Amino acid sequence: MKFIKSKKLLMLCIATFTFFGVLFDVFAINEVLMDKNCEHIYSYSWEDVATSSICQKYIATCSRCGYSYVIAYDYEHNYTDCEDSSCNDCGYTRPIPGHSYSYSWVSVSTASICQKYVATCSRCGYSYVVSYDYVHYYPSSNTQVCRDCGYVR
Ligand SMILES: [Zn+2]
Ligand SMILES: [Zn+2]
Ligand SMILES: [Zn+2]
Ligand SMILES: [Zn+2]
Description:
alpha+beta; binds zinc ion
């Protein structure tokens, strides 16, 4: 009888030890997770910063302990054009600057069109035709080549 009792006690002790052992292991694991000597396993990702001067940051994050650091910053927002107010990458919104046009004549040189007057934005490259010149310029009846566009009649 006494033997059984003590065996029960022993089992209880083992159970208790196991319980605290598991607890201790849990704490030990936490200890390892918080350990600065963690052999970091990094995953990399772009994160929005969305300030006027910074678009996104490229960060390395340890999947074991959560430690992270910034590898690089992207300082350039990505707008579709001068009429676009929100960055396509980070969502930062700006006042729309609007296109800044310069104008020039460009040769078309077809039978019906001599030149076109084109407005081109110096900021984003967007352009559109303001008007067409349909009349070729031949200074004399002998001239075969248009002085404006080079079209040969
Ligand atoms: Zn780590
Ligand atoms: Zn941006
Ligand atoms: Zn523009
Ligand atoms: Zn012409």
